[in-house]
Amino acid sequence: MNEVVLEVKNLTAAYQKNTVLRDVNFQVEAGSLTGIVGPNGAGKSTLIKTMLALHPVLSGEVHFFGSTYKKVKKRIGYVPQRGSVDWDFPTIALDVVMMGLYGQIGWLRRPTKTHQRMAFEALDKMGMADYANRQISQLSGGQQQRVFLARALVQNADIYFMDEPLAGVDAATERAIMKILDELKAAGKTVMVVHHDLQTVADYFDHVLFLNRTVIKHGKTNDVYTEDNIATTYGGSIRLIGGRIGNVVHPVKQ
Amino acid sequence: MTYTAWIILTASLVGLSCGLIGVFLILRKMAMMADAISHTVLLGIVVAFIITQELTGVHMLIGAIIAGLLTALFVQWLNSLDVQQEAAIGIVFTTLFAIGVILIEAFVGNAHLDVQHALMGEITFIPWNRITLPIVGSIPKAAAILTLVFFVVLLFIIAFYKEWKITTFDPGLAASVGIPVLFMHYLFMSLVSITTVASFDAVGAIMVVAMLITPAASAYLWTDRLHMMLVISGLFGVASAVIGYFIAAWIDTSISGSMAFATGLIFLASYLLSPKHGLLAKYLKPEETFE
């Protein structure tokens, strides 16, 4: 077993009076690529936000690399849902990618040519070099998602959290993103991805975390990705199509 | 300088500072917050006056910053108690403003500070209320304070440009790369407060909202880059001040009213004529499509 890079113990979180997550426990190994799946309102986004201190923890603990989030912030990358920002913001793709470096640049300093080059290289890696100077509202949904991925890449983190990066994107973007995720994994990075398409889970991820308010099952895809576990997580609301696991239709925004 | 020149200069400084601050108000979707703070700074001014018995610049600025921060804090607090953002703003600003009005009537009763003045401003008196400074000599007090505030605003925007940008566009990412989002929020609220209070004398609580929101909303229609939006918004603010003054002189009416009206004219022109988002441009060429 590899080194444990993320450990969540008895985590509970709530929105106002409604408990969204209760008693969440799991451990993630270095170099794993985990898909987080579960029905709408299961608390997938909340789980990520709570681990990253963007949402208050009611009780429980989260440890990254055996330390607290605050101490290892720089080693953690986050890709929020595409719909969480206003794409009419007056800026260009290259600038958005550069924002991933703002924490490293530090106070009262301006981004330099080096930072620009790093941002451009990340865009290029996502096949977006031609769109570097494009106003972000002029990009398609898939292109916007690739800009977000490029922004995460420049952070050069060791563990990444991505909230529905494959929701509502075109096939080319989906391929480009999966190629990057595999590269990250090959480079020994740890990646956790909220995912909505049950048909591709087995192809894309080596680990699966079934979530519905709490962890239903977590483990290697080969071991835990079974119809039973899916039915338990989704409350039996899925259909089986031709022996394969059917797609549960989700709206893009939660 | 002549009387007219001082009025135009003072109003232009209002337009410039409000134009810059307004860009972030628009992009942070906080236009209502500007409305709130423009009223609650009255409480800050009144309390500062009651304590010091003076209406000089520095006390007013400090009072305004405290009032502005209290507004932001109360709104945040009510919001965390499950009260809708818009409702929270409405509750906080009317209550604090009302306390300001009560205090004026009860304790101040002074010719220099009345509710009418606070709401509408009194730019016509500005050139007579002077202060003597080294080097520049005797200049209107309002112009001196506005110059100071303009440089403070400019300095903060330039120094923390990338922090404003990231906390405005994506606060979640900003927090995750270690930028103190909440601190930036309160810092911004302080800047809104000092800009508002410095503009208060010139245009009053109601007109200052026009200066804060409309030039920035107009600039948003002309450009897709943040730094250009700041430049254009500042210029629109100045243009509104100048155009407003001449409208007022022409038909002999309220100067602050005419200036606010001029911001509306600029917005209308932008809405019709802007090459990118204007009505005319949309009519002439069909919407661009993604590839």
From TrEMBL, chain A:
GO molecular function: ATP binding; ATP hydrolysis activity
Domain of life: Bacteria
Pfam families xref list: ABC_tran (PF00005)
Keyword Kinase among record annotations: no
Entry-linked CDD domains: ABC_Metallic_Cations
Domain ABC transporter, chain residue ranges per copy: 6-238
Nucleotide-binding recorded as keyword: yes
Keywords noted in UniProt: ATP-binding, Nucleotide-binding, Transport
Similarity remark: Belongs to the ABC transporter superfamily.
Protein's recorded name: Manganese transport system ATP-binding protein MntB
Name of the gene: mntB
TrEMBL record, chain B:
Topological relation to the membrane, as annotated: Multi-pass membrane protein
Single biological process term from Gene Ontology: transmembrane transport
Alphabetical UniProt keywords: Cell membrane, Membrane, Transmembrane, Transmembrane helix, Transport
Subcellular location: Cell membrane
Keyword presence, Transport: yes
Family assignment from sequence similarity: Belongs to the ABC-3 integral membrane protein family.
Protein name: Manganese transport system membrane protein MntD
Lineage: Bacteria, Bacillati, Bacillota, Bacilli, Bacillales
